[in-house]
Amino acid sequence: MRFHTVSFDLDGTVVDAFTTIYRSYVHTLPLFGYPAPTMEEVRRAVGGGLEKAMRHFVPEERVAEAVKVHVDYSETILFDDARLYPGAVELISSLHVRGVRTAILTNKIGDQARALMKHFNLHPHLDLVFGARDIQWRKPAAEFTAEALRRLGSTSDGACIVGDSPFDVQTALNAGFPAFCVTTGTHDAAQLLAAGATAVHPDLVSLAQEFE
After folding, report:
1. pLDDT tens by residue, 54-77
2. Which residues have a Cβ under 8 Å from the Cβ of 83 and sit 6 or more positions away?
3. Mean pLDDT, rounded, for 131-145
């Protein structure tokens, strides 16, 4: 095994939570006098954290309030539509049983991420679930990844990230290790390779070959 630590993004990589995210925008924006967005508008906005995405829809002075409404509502429907992507359980559990340190690194609120991992019973196979609000930084800041590695007892040498977006690629680049990507999220292979991904696969089932 060439990697001792493998960190996974959550939404779009391990969990398909797009319907939950979309429904939360549809609930939130009309409360602030804005039209409900289309799925495509939300798809283009997401990435880099909820605050960043919300700025696509509301002015800066309303972002914090809109984010709170979005978060509060999403917690009420957190498990309604979320689904694990094929191969997620098999890949993460196989890495863990082989002694690889496994983690979720996400810009989703950490408490929500941990709740989802418990819901899907993936938490026994994960050494860390680390997200927004667990620390002052978030992806792609090098400080965010450094703190995750510290909590894992790992180093950047021999670590990698699995993700679905250019933000995940930039996170890996900022931390100095490879980024393996899947196209199950909101970006295609050309976009991910252009961002600097080490390799791109259609899904986690195919990506598992990187860790054989």
Report:
1. 999 999 999 999 999 999 999 999
2. 15, 16
3. 94
Concatenate the DSSP letters of all residues of 155-205 into one string: -STTEEEEESSHHHHHHHHHHTS-EEEESSSS--HHHHHHHT-SEEESSHH
Number of Cα atoms under 13 Å in the Cβ half of residue 28: 26
DSSP letter for 212, please: -
Query: What structural domains does the chain harbor?
Result: 5-16+83-211 (3.40.50.1000), 18-76 (1.10.150)
Tokens (6 digits) for 26:
């549809």
Amino acid at 96: H
CB 116 within 8 A of CB 10: yes
